[in-house]
Amino acid sequence: MLVSTLILNGLVMGAIYALIGVGLSLIFGVLEIVNFAHGQIYTLGALALALLVGHFGFGFLPAAFVSALGVASFGYLLYVLFLRHIRKGEFERGIILTLGIGIVVQNALIHFYGATPQIVDTEFSFKDISFLELRVEMIKAIAVGFAIVSITTLHLVLTRTRFGMAIRALSQNREAALVVGMRPTIIAGHAVVIGTALAGLAGAVLAPVFTVHPLMGAPILFKAFAIVIIGGLGHLPGAVVASLIIGVSESLAGGLGSASLQDAAVFLVMIAMLQFRPMGLFGKGVRI
């Protein structure tokens, strides 16, 4: 029963991690930029939900939706002001730029919110639901619902709509996309908005699960990198599979070992993947 509970909890957390990993992978797949500000974008979603619920009296569901929209708006500004000016082949410039943006955002959040951790209580806190004789916190189950709906919707958009096919075409061959009349800057901007919205949504739905503070994005950023490396850079289904692997590994390590082993388990999985499959489970060659 213990192992079953740990696996279920791991799958639940993995589904939520997938929001972060898919968003990071989408941005890389289209722009070939490793967004080192992704952790702070996740933090913005969490702090936005804490503000809406704690100070404005929003319910959890509308607060999560509004938080994701607000973070998406920030993502659009991030693209217009900075990311769209990075050219192909300027990989290092992208890393330095997004790292600097992340540091600025983090310190701005510390200035305005303070560094004291906050606990977010919602109408779903302290409630459980039963699943196959196992119990899951209701807030986590709702977060999984958000993750499933969001990722499924993104998959349908990418595979069934002209807009989604344009994103995939741009990620696979930018020059060919230009030849057939696509507008890469507009398409890439939409990809950044979607990727940041997913990260903001992840922060919002996890805010009631963990304590909220401006430094919470750093550990989640490294987990997101582990996810995209294990799944294959730019491969969205790979990011989902890798997220579930990370979630289960983390849960088993913490439950059967100790809490200090949780983060170690994540990176042991990543190191093993780099040793045996350096391109990840699905490889960089298979893109969005």
From TrEMBL:
InterPro entries: ABC_transp_permease, BCAA_transport_permease. It comes from the Bacteria. Keywords: Amino-acid transport, Cell membrane, Membrane, Transmembrane, Transmembrane helix, Transport. It holds the Pfam family BPD_transp_2. It is found in: Cell membrane. CDD domains: TM_PBP1_LivH_like. The chain crosses the membrane at residues 6-29, 41-58, 64-83, 95-114, 138-158, 191-212, 224-248, 255-276. Its main location: membrane. It is a multi-pass membrane protein. Belongs to the binding-protein-dependent transport system permease family. LivHM subfamily. PANTHER family: AMINO ACID ABC TRANSPORTER PERMEASE PROTEIN, BRANCHED-CHAIN AMINO ACID TRANSPORT SYSTEM PERMEASE PROTEIN LIVH. This is Branched-chain amino acid ABC transporter permease. The lineage of its organism: Bacteria, Pseudomonadati, Pseudomonadota, Alphaproteobacteria, Hyphomicrobiales.
